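Structure (tokenized):
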């Protein structure tokens, strides 16, 4: 076929029927999609696939040798069952075919082949029922045998309708067609000097060797090149974004002596950590420039990110501008407002009786505010009286205006859509400075890739006076007395005058318990996990757990509930009373995950802890130990000791290092998509590049991309790179980077 390119639809190469199967089951629609659908692993002749580790209900493709074939007629009725036992020399697997005795002609003892199907179990024996297979009989002198002899056998990510050998056959057809055409339809996104400098093979050779390697060395050379493609093209996109941001105008907001910041610092009852001083200096330097700051502020739970952000906001107010803090939930927005007003004291009472000379107004805007209060807040922001505004999505509405918006602080970026952040940034006459805070520590390479268009500041030093948190796993089924002891520990903490959290994965009110009723998730109810899709019991719920505790192990204590579907006034009332010490135990969903600061809380019991992610558990744990008394976090789980879920919990219990836990979390989630899979719903862009393991490649690619974009920002001299960038950044992804 002439003029075959990476954009050519697969229908033109493999036919309509096969192309439809590939598109429907594997989302492969073009030649490029297929060629970048790399083998998941490689089987080797003579090195049979291990059958010992197969899990029930897993879809597998195994390379094995036929050991025994038996045809068993049904008793008393027509039909038969063909049983084929295959082995890898250590384990065995049964293949079962009903009324297909004719397969004995193919399936002979001694033959070797690939067998694919879903692992089931019958009479304690693992089996595949009516599996698909492709034989590679040593004795058969066929082209198929020659194809496989002495080569690695690619095993592709497959589906029930598109087996690995179907994918492999289509790949071979495409590769042969491209080779016959001299690979004219495959561009070369990496500049020649870069390939030479880093010892990388050309792209056509890499595509050939990733699909048809003759040795492991071939495979490694191909993967090395393809890793560079993914890292470099992505870093070019981010470098272009940084360059475009640097070219935008912004109002400089330099520090000013004798202003709000100086007065605020003088009143602090503690000394800033070295980390807080260093990060503040980085932020102040950015704010003083004439192009918008784009900075990511990340750090450990309790490292003082909010204080650093507040000092940045005060600097902007000193320079004549306004600052907003955008929080993902009303509970967190109210908490931020309350704590910032308390920290500032009369410095937050601008225009009010008793306000300090340099004071400004600090206002709160949420969707549940009454009309008079809302109208006054909107007026304060529009006329400039409010130097600092704190709120939820309500800040983004069209009617919200600012006199001179100079800084946008986004707390917990991952909970906001791209359009929402962009709408807030657009409220300044010139682009405001942007500070993104995340309480989830991110490994350096992940930050460099996910937030590659942001400069990164890290707070990894906890303020003085923070107490240690001890974490323990409570195996509720194996050792029910441990759970009883957990409730005793809660009573002991309350007896000392402290308070406790009990966290559940589900709300459990009537609406949720009725499966016929479907609801739209509320913005501040992000973690109601529902009943789940597995065969386990439904997750424990706030409402039922609170009732159980009040009648049982915590009877007599003051117990309240908090979740996202409570009315805003009720949520605020509960949090105020809990913060004031008038509630002993707060039973809540993950609405308390970030930002909630009650120093008197010393104990947390997380029910069904295995249903939460590693980083989320670390965030929740950070709500205790915030005062002078040590914190205690108990992770309750029904999962057995040898399960992966328990291994996750053991990892959380074993370290307080959020950066290490984030690595574990990412490894378990297989990293996902760095270009905002959650934002746009698109498939992952990373096939061979690991943002955790390929730090050197990512770092080097970032430097090379920055150098190239500095010389050729529009990539006019690199058309193939420009095309690769267009392929990586579809419309959704381009918008994600443009606005993010």
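Design, position by position:
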């Amino acid at each position: 076929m002439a003029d075959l390119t990476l954009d050519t639809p697969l229908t033109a190469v493999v036919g309509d029927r096969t192309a439809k199967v590939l598109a429907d089951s594997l989302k492969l629609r073009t030649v490029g999609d297929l060629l970048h659908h790399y083998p998941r692993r490689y089987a080797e002749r003579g090195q049979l696939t291990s059958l010992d580790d197969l899990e029930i209900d897993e879809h597998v493709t195994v390379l094995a040798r036929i050991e025994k074939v038996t045809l068993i007629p049904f008793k008393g009725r027509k039909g038969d069952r063909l049983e084929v036992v295959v082995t890898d020399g250590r384990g065995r697997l049964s293949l079962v075919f009903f009324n297909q005795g004719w397969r004995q002609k193919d399936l002979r003892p001694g033959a070797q082949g690939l067998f694919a199907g879903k692992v089931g179990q019958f009479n304690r024996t693992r089996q595949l029922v009516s599996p698909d297979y492709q034989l590679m009989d040593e004795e058969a002198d066929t082209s198929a045998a020659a194809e496989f002899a002495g080569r690695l056998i690619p095993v592709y990510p497959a589906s029930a309708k598109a087996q690995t050998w179907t994918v492999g056959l289509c790949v071979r057809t495409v590769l042969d067609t491209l080779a016959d055409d001299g690979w004219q339809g495959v561009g070369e996104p990496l500049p020649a000097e870069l390939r030479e400098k880093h010892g990388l093979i050309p792209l056509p050779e890499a595509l050939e060797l990733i699909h048809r390697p003759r040795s492991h060395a071939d495979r490694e050379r191909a993967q090395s090149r393809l890793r560079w493609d993914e890292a470099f093209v992505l870093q070019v996109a981010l470098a272009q974004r940084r360059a475009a941001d640097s070219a935008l105008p912004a109002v400089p907001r330099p520090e000013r002596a004798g202003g709000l910041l100086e007065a605020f610092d003088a009143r602090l009852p503690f000394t800033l950590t070295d980390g807080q001083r260093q990060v503040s200096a980085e932020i102040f330097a950015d704010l003083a420039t004439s192009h918008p700051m784009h900075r990511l502020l990340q750090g450990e739970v309790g490292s003082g990110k909010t204080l650093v952000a507040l000092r940045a906001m005060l600097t902007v107010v000193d320079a004549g501008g306004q600052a907003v803090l955008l929080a993902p939930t009303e509970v967190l927005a109210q908490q931020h407002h309350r704590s910032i007003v308390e920290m500032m004291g009369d410095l937050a009472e601008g225009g009010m009786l008793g306000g300090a000379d340099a004071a400004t107004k600090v206002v709160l805007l949420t969707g549940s505010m009454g009309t008079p209060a809302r109208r006054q807040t909107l007026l304060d922001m529009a006329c400039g009286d409010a130097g600092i505004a704190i709120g939820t999505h309500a800040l983004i509405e069209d009617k919200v205006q600012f006199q001179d918006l100079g800084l946008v602080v986004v707390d917990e970026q991952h909970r906001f859509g791209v359009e929402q952040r962009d709408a807030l940034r657009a409220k300044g006459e010139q682009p405001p400075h942007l500070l993104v805070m995340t309480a989830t520590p991110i490994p350096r390479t992940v930050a460099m890739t996910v937030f590659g268009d942001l400069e990164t500041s890290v707070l990894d030093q906890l303020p003085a006076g923070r107490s240690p948190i001890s974490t323990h796993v409570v195996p509720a089924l194996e050792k029910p007395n441990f759970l009883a002891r957990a409730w005793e520990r809660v009573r002991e903490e309350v007896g000392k005058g402290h308070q406790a959290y009990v966290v559940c994965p589900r709300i459990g009110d009537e609406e949720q318990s009725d499966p016929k009723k479907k609801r739209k998730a509320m913005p501040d109810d992000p973690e109601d996990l529902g009943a789940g899709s597995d065969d386990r019991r439904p997750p424990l719920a706030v409402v039922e757990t609170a009732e159980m505790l009040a009648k049982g192990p915590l009877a007599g204590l003051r117990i309240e509930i908090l979740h996202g579907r409570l009315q805003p006034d009720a949520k605020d009332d509960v949090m105020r009373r809990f913060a004031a010490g008038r509630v002993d135990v707060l039973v809540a969903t993950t609405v308390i995950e970030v930002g909630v600061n009650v120093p008197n809380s010393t104990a947390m019991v997380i029910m069904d802890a295995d249903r939460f992610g590693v980083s989320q558990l670390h965030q929740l744990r950070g709500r205790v130990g915030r005062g002078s008394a040590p914190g205690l976090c108990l992770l309750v789980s029904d999962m057995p000791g040898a399960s992966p879920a328990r291994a996750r919990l053991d990892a959380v219990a074993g370290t307080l290092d959020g950066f290490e836990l984030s690595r574990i979390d990412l490894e378990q989630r297989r990293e996902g998509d760095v270009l905002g899979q959650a934002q746009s719903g698109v498939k992952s862009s990373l096939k061979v590049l690991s943002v955790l393991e390929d730090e050197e490649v990512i770092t080097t690619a970032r430097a090379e991309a920055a150098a190239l974009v500095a010389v050729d920002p529009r990539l006019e001299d690199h058309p193939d790179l420009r095309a690769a960038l267009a392929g990586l950044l579809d419309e959704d992804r381009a918008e994600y980077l443009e606005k993010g």
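Reviewer-requested clarification: The mean pLDDT is 83. The CA atoms of residues 256 and 318 lie 6 Å apart.
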